[in-house]
Amino acid sequence: MIRVTRGVTTAVTLLALAGASPGLAYAQPGGAGARAGGAAVNGTELPEGWRVVGSGAERQLVWTADRAVPMGDARVEFRAGGRLLGHPVAAPDGRSFRLPLGDERIDGGAALSVTAGGRRLDAEAQARAPRLRPATPGAPVARPEAPLPANSVDPGVPGPYRTASGEYALASVRLPGFPAPVEMRAAVTAPRDAPGKRPVALFLHGRHGTCYTAGSEEDSGAWPCPAGMRPIPSHQGYGAAQRLLASQGYVTLSVSANGVNGQDHAAEDGGAQARSSLVRLHLARWAEWGARPEKAPAAVRKAAAAADLSRVLLVGHSRGGEGVNRAALDSLSAPPAAQDAYRGPVRWKIRGTVLIGPTIFGQNPVPDVPSLTVLPGCDGDVSDLQGQMYLDATRGVGRGTALHSAVYVVGANHNFFNSEWTPGQAQAPAVDDFWSDGEQPDPVCSPGTATRLTAPQQQTAGAAYIAAAARLFVAGDDRVRPLLDGTGRRAPSAGPARVLAHAVGAARTPAFVPGSADAGAALTVSGAGRLCAQIDEDAARSCLAPDESGRSPHFAFWETSPEPGRDAVALGWTRAGTPVTVRTARPVSLAGAESLALRVIVPPNSRGTELDVTVTDASGRRAALGRVRVDGLPGSERTASYWAREVRVPLAAAVRAGLDLKRAAALELTPRTAAGRAWLVDSWGFRPGLPAVRPAALPRVDLGRLTVDEGDSGLRTYRVPVTVSGTGSGQVRVFSPAPGGEGFTSRVVTVRPGHRDIDVKVPVEGNTRYGWDVTRDVFVKAVRGAVVGAHRGGVTARNDDPMPVARVTPVADAVGEGQALVWRVTLSQPADADVMGGFSFLAPAGGAPELSTADLDPEWVRDTYGWVPDPARPLSRPEYPDSYAAFAVPAGETVTEVRVPTVKDGVAEPVEALRAVPFVYDAEWRQVPGAEVTGTVRDAS
In this prediction, what percent of the chain has a pLDDT beyond 70? Predict the structure, then answer.
């Protein structure tokens, strides 16, 4: 979840962390903040706010925001020219981010950017991209389509049971890697008079603020909550969906995860494993209470209905979605014990998952557990809609019989699925995560547009589709399937919400699937099309050019670019009748299918793209199957609207023509509209129904991180920890640092439990100079017949040398107006990293007159504050707390100066004083104070 705090943020210096020139640094809500000027690399100035600090293998790229980056679910990413450099570490104030570069080269002319979930966070984001225009001149943006036909069964209609609600709180638990205990609290809503044991739906919220001050706009991401603040009850935000499911006979519980949210910033996986542990700890308690009901809390006993843990649906929002996906995986294949807080037996069965605006940092979905992914079309947090990978990344990995569905909810934002994240409904401060520009409103997502949903409309639609997943995955009611599998039906109870669906798995069989790991299914493309790379900065190879306005959920970035194994077919034509032929290396079978299903993307806001579909068998016999029409989604440059629509053509014509459907060899798509573009994501032989899902016994891969002391000298080599558990063998793709340290190389590896099939070695060089830790990362992704838990690992060489001692001496501490107060900061020895700190200002002793911002050079004040305060303020009483003059001693040097330039103001004044406490930041970014310094300024009049 993302929200813009209006509370005062405690500042840890931005300019100090960025190694900028000395000046005042502070945190400011809502206005322009302190800004670091651009630094130079290879003689070329970097954009404003960027700086490379340190030397050698300890170089770091630092970006300084002009205000705190709001707490959200998407991870912050550094990019150069669109290429992912990595995920930086945030300072405690949320405004400074630093990324170890190692041997990575940064071209001074590179277009550096900061993104989170595909949206720009840095200053360059203010330059708006060209708008996505309708295909027909004069047509309105996002013209609505006719409503879909109503489904025969509406899962959003309340059931017959009365409901009861309550809440339980148990003793807090310890999770690996988290220093503070995490709460065990949940809100329970259950049917009151339903017979027998009832299925269970467990909800898990996402990453939101953790604490708030009642009656104010102040919130926090700390845990435990600071004195005077209350926990934000995010777990109470799914009440409407819980009540609907409970009325239909489900026992529901919604788990609080503030303790994870407040500590997951340092977790390698963003907290996925911790959330899984929390979910399974709750399920384990329910299993215990089922055996001994008298031990259950009052809220559970009040529910009356007994829980049937053999029928469990997990519902996760945002990072909670990734958490319940990991919980489903961990329930089938245990994670490494050192990473997990639950060690007991699995006494439950996960029948399916619902993932609402989810993150999927690992792109490691569970292939053999059915899933529904809800993609909010106006998501302002996880705005790249990366949750699409819960479908796309399952293809070819498991048995393929689990249905994986995505529903695209036009006009829905990220937050409003949770009432406790919704203004006017929440107890704590809350905002609309889709930021709106009042002067240039978004044509699709700004409140009040025809396509934007209100909060109640969004929550009603969300509840209806959660209930649809429960009815299909848990109750096995196949009548609900057309709502989720791309057949094109709507749930009337969802009201005016326009919800579109497509799916993979179930009774489908693969036909023409770009990027398939099966060499025999490899595709060649001819005519007015090409095989394109979903992830590649090269415009000639990429499916969407890096500077394209708008984004595609199917092409969401992962950890590296380019990324082998992720392809699509790009079609581009300048006149109707120009065919594109897609051919497989060996024939594929469409036998038994009733139609050919295609997932096709067309540009947002386009209308009426028509394609004739023809299939050819291995003997060359052809059959024209029919014509499909594809309309684009409502979209703007701020939405991820390049999303595939599912269209189907019957195979009856192929049967009549005598084609051998067991040996289909080619697919031909012929545009029947004027010049245009389209992308084929994949195609499948489709027949209705939901086969029984039986998870395969697959090997599981988890990467670990080895942290070692760098040592004083010599070169040592260490292995990245890898755990392969489970049974059988499977294939994964391993990404490891390329020789020379720039980028990554990848290879497909067959893994087997008990074998060292993944063997990545990392050299570490020792020295006796203070510096930062040096990290080398390795990533892994499932390809075929394997699953991945912890997708990220590596080796970190920990600095084991003490930080140099900093000594501050006056150079000019008694000056006249118009001169600069100057202090020299001297280190006892040079370091490999910048040594950073600042001067915190105090009121002068004895009530002496104090310098104010009016006494300082306004250019200096403007460069550091972003503006000149009016009226002027004493240095010890700034508008925002914790202001200070920042300094940085560059790596390899031992001296810098802190300058406070004054001006002649022409006003007769007594001698004015400055009093400050110098400090430096240690390796944990804690302030280490030194002895006070003072300075005086004489009047020049």
Answer: 88
